[in-house]
Amino acid sequence: MPKISGLPAAILTDITFDDIVPFVDEAGPTTKYMTMALLRTALLVGGASYTVDKVGNGVGTGGTVAQITTKATGVTLSKLSGQITTMSAALASLAYAVFTVTNTLVAAVDTIVVNVASGGTANAYKASVVAVGAGSFAIALQNITAGSLTEAPVINFNVIKGSAT
Questions:
Q1: Cα–Cα–Cα angle for 157, 158, 162, nearest 5°?
Q2: What is the pLDDT of residue 165?
Q3: The whole model's pTM is what?
């Protein structure tokens, strides 16, 4: 059985090896093989236990939060994934509203993925991450239509844990 290094043995509860996938090494034309593994891990975060299967964040790792006051008002949600309901305030044509999400689980090397989920006119908004730092990230929400909109779009986010080493 292949050795998995770099993970504390205490968090591994189940490992299954599903597929052997060929790939070409960039260093040369030799085809090598990589084993695709399904890791089931039990994580202990903030005193709560979560199970993560496959790619993505599992049940119990998410949460919801709503802005108050304006679309530029920051929110706090310390979860690996979640939904942010923005304030139902006017956003002019092609204008941006930037707000900070305070999240104690985020490190500066993490990747944050966001998308507009619901709550507004279809294809009327674009969400993007404009900054990531230890304990927070910033989202820019843009109205990409020709007119002002007064809606409360819901933004999904997921934290992909990263490493610089």
A1: 135
A2: 86
A3: 0.67
